[in-house]
Amino acid sequence: EAGVVQSPRYKIIEKKQPVAFWCNPISGHNTLYWYLQNLGQGPELLIRYENEEAVDDSQLPKDRFSAERLKGVDSTLKIQPAELGDSAVYLCASSPQGAGANVLTFGAGSRLTVL
Amino acid sequence: AQSVSQHNHHVILSEAASLELGCNYSYGGTVNLFWYVQYPGQHLQLLLKYFSGDPLVKGIKGFEAEFIKSKFSFNLRKPSVQWSDTAEYFCAVGLTGGFKTIFGAGTRLFVKA
């Protein structure tokens, strides 16, 4: 079974440029998460989707960040324009419904460097 | 606000030493508890979880954790570490009802061969 797939793995951009990250969750997992992980810190939730609905986006900086999950499967996270402080690892995770909810399967992450 | 606190940011042990990593959380409701591990160059992955029942849970690779409700703690233990346990360990608390999972800052473990 394929795990959570993310791309790109690494991205280097200049500040004020846009960037997008893509995530394909585990097949059948209804819940998809985007987390931000800064160096030396634990993952922090940006947004959570139940199917195609964003049910928790309270931590998403909506002035520059946007996300979508069309058809309730793949998801993209966009930053426009990027700032120096956005340099971090962006993690995607998914989980099933029911008893397995809360058990997250993570992708490899997308490491962003903003110059 | 809910939070998860891990007591040590860095731990260095020799092989065969015993390990205990502390984790405390602040949340008054029902929680699910997790330890995730990230080996060098690999994804974050689940080490063990507690949902209910026996507060002593066993995970992969000989790790175990004990939930002490009165202390809001979920400490991770292993009687004898190996070099291959070198990794970063994250404690996480899942808030039931909202399915929000909050992570601690992580503890980086280095095991000397």
Describe the protein in words:
The complex is a heterodimer of chains A (about 120) and B (about 110). Chain A has about 120 residues and is an all-beta fold. Helices cover about 0% and strands about 50% of the residues of chain A. Chain A contains no helices and eleven strands. Chain A has strands at about 5, 10-15, 20-25, 30-35, 45-50, 55, 65-70, 75-80, 90-95, 105, 110-115. In chain A, strands 2, 4, 5, 6, 9, 10 and 11 form a seven-stranded mixed sheet that branches. Chain A has a four-stranded antiparallel sheet with strand order 1-3-8-7, with no helix packed on it. In chain A, a hairpin with a 6-residue loop joins strand 4 and strand 5 (about 45-50). The radius of gyration of chain A is 13 Å and the shape is globular. Chain A starts with a strand and ends with a strand. Chain B is mainly beta and about 110 residues long. Chain B has strands at about 5, 10-15, 20, 25, 30-40, 45-50, 55-60, 65-70, 75-80, 85-95, 100-105, 105-110. In chain B, the strands form three sheets. In chain B, strands 2, 5, 6, 10, 11 and 12 form a six-stranded mixed sheet that branches. The chains are: A mainly beta (about 120), B mainly beta (about 110). Chains A and B meet through strand 4, strand 5, strand 9 and strand 10 of A and strand 5, strand 6, strand 10 and strand 11 of B.
Please write out the topology:
The complex is a heterodimer of chains A (115) and B (113).
Chain A: E1 5-7, E2 10-13, E3 19-24, E4 31-37, E5 44-50, E6 53-56, E7 65-68, E8 75-79, E9 88-95, E10 105-106, E11 110-114
Parallel strand pairs in A: 2-11
Antiparallel strand pairs in A: 1-3, 3-8, 4-5, 4-9, 5-6, 7-8, 9-10, 9-11
Chain B: E1 3-6, E2 10-14, E3 19-21, E4 23-26, E5 31-38, E6 44-50, E7 56-58, E8 64-68, E9 73-78, E10 87-95, E11 100-103, E12 107-112
Parallel strand pairs in B: 2-12
Antiparallel strand pairs in B: 1-4, 3-9, 5-6, 5-10, 7-8, 8-9, 10-11, 10-12
